[in-house]
Amino acid sequence: MRHNNYFKNKRVLVLGGTGSIGTKVIDSLVTLSPKVIKIFSRDEYKQHKLRYKYTDLNFIDYNLGDIRDIDSLNTVCKNIDIIFHCAALKHVPISEEMPEEFIKTNILGSLNVKKAALLNNVPTIVSISSDKAVDSANLMGLTKAVQEKIFASHYLKEKRPGVRFINVRFGNVIGSHGSLFPIIYHQIMNNQPITLTHPEMTRFYMSQQEAIDLILWSAVNGNDGEIIIKKMKSAKIIAIINGYLKLMKKKQNWPIKNIGLRVGEKMHESLITEDNLYRTKEKDQYYVVSPYNPKEIISDKMLNAEGSIQEKNKFMSNNRQNYMSNAEISCYIAGFIKWQQLHTSYL
Q: Which of 132, 230, 233, 236 is catalytic?
């Protein structure tokens, strides 16, 4: 993807820069000639590993800290042009068990990010959200929905000239820590039964590169208050499992252990909320959701609100028009396996 030299000589801060998404953002940024890349995370060991990976690059600056700490954020945000906010807690069952921790990081931490960005006049902030923020059924999704509101509200209230807060909404990122693709691969490689929540469950999927392209495209093209979402394809969980067994030349009667829906899970996901419908437009390979109009807030009424259940179904993961073909599923699986074979850990 071309970015028209947008990142050249920019000073970029990656919050959560040692996570599965943050590290991929850095991998892309180092090829785009930034002036400085600041990595901010609380994982000392992973920062140590990145120092060895990028040992010849003198424009990367490593910073230990937590977005829960406003003082650390204020320090690291000085003289920054772009912030990528990738720091988050994201696992659904754990969010139900320990909601306080998710609130501290995903909500209060995001408030700190916004405050520090405004205090230091950072022009562009891109925040990572999830399709689980849509009609949330779990605490993790709820915190992401609030996170979106925190950043979108800049357009309605502060609206500082030259400053953009942009949300991007992910689906399931293939290969991210603890996600479906590495779990199935791990179970097959270890001759274990494959765990299945429900054969009809569907999810939206995107590759790690598609996720990074979404983030970088949004930084270049997004406007203040917008939510930007890739036009993703979906699949049934059982279709992913069958795709693995076929591609890895395993017996099709491989043992499958039905475990039922986990705490906080939904059968299907959606990319767009009902109130997003009338504010959603298509641009290139993305959906762009505009923020509320300030007049709507003042009048307490959504202007030109149009939409229907049928229109919302367009954005559902169980809409057959969104299903991946078997060939597309195989392509994603093959790409993940190729990537996985270069790494030592499945999960």
A: 132
